[in-house]
Amino acid sequence: MPKPPADRSTVAHDPPKRQKAKASPHLRAQGVTGQGVVAASTAILRAAPGGAMIARLPRGTPIAVKAGKGDWVEVAANGMEGVLSRRRFRLGHAPAARRASRGTPSGAPAMPPDAGPGDIKVVGSKVLGPNGIVFGKIHKLGLVNYGRTGLDTFFDEDPDAFPDLSPSVQRVMRAVSANEGKIEAINTWDNSILSCSIYQWTVAAGTGAGELPYALSVLKERAPAAFATYFGSLGLDVAVSKPKPFAVGRGHFILHGRTLDTEALKAPLRGHLWAYRFWRAAHDAAVRRAYVRVAIDRIPVFYGPAVAALDGRTIGDFMSSEEAVAHLLDQHVNRPGHVPQTIAAAITAVIAATGKSDPAGWSDAEERATLAHYLELRRGTSMTDSDGRAQRIKDVVRSGRLSDRRGSFHWRTEP
Known about the structure:
Layout: H1 25-29, E1 34-38, E2 42-46, E3 53-58, E4 62-67, E5 72-77, E6 80-85, E7 89-91, E8 121-123, E9 126-128, E10 134-139, E11 142-145, H2 151-157, H3 167-177, E12 186-187, E13 195-196, E14 201-202, H4 211-222, H5 224-230, E15 236-240, E16 251-255, E17 258-259, H6 263-266, H7 272-281, H8 285-296, H9 299-303, H10 315-318, H11 322-334, H12 339-354, H13 364-379, H14 386-398
Antiparallel strand pairs: 1-4, 1-7, 2-3, 4-5, 5-6, 8-9, 9-10, 10-11, 11-12, 12-13, 13-14, 15-16, 16-17
Helix pairs in contact: 3-11, 4-5, 4-8, 11-14, 12-13
């Protein structure tokens, strides 16, 4: 897919740079003690200077500054203790807006205005909405917009969206997001009619059921008012069966009471007005949370079921590092049907080489050998840019933002 020019939309802007707060001479002399707040977009809490990562702290996280001289300072944050680079925080308290009621995003983008058919215009290769907002570029059968907000930004702006999930899940999602789409991404140029958001969920070609109706069904269940505002009030509904265990949900749209189950019936959703409506909705906090929830829930689809080739054990029994889960999720988004057989073949090969058939006896060495063999096998599948995608995740590991240690992946926050 050709990359369009940078989105010049007037409704989403980069946040202004903040002035760095300086400690008083007295505090500097004492090695810095008191209250502080993470000032960078993210900060890594580590066990020791340059050491293992304990947690990733988003901007605005309050910290108790304990002691320390030089570049690293001992701090406590979110019930954890470690060291933090002095450059990643400032002294003082978190802004009042950040300390407001739990569950309210602190950096949600501005909401674009509603639009009717007369508000959409095409000027050259640009598709414009109300007030001249550029929300797409003409391409083949429709338009394309790669969006602005990645999962890194989402978790920084809305850190309380999923309190039941562990920081480990967030780290995996952030790592894989480098290979996937932005939340507001829209595509109407190919045979899938309309695709949008993080994993480019589609309406689906022909008579097929798509993942996009399922994503909206999650929104309808979690935030019915938001669904009604952006879709239901316009005559759009969803027909989705409850997905089977360990399966990706799919369904059809219903438009003004008629199920869109043929290519001809789906065709209106390729129109620029519907593209604008989906793009606009993706700026709402409730819609964003629903989309991210659908993306997160893809992990249990491949990680939880028993695999016959592994004697009824799960992939999670053998592969339990954050890095492994990230690589597996990365392939599952791109080529879901290939994941079980590819990782099972790698696990089987390592069992044959080591004689260790019980994953309880595995260490980092066995898991890393399996992961290396898996990525080699994955290269031989039809996955798009397997090597490049794998390298981007490895770069996240190398930066200390994702763990390659066995047992590092945890689904839920510890009580």
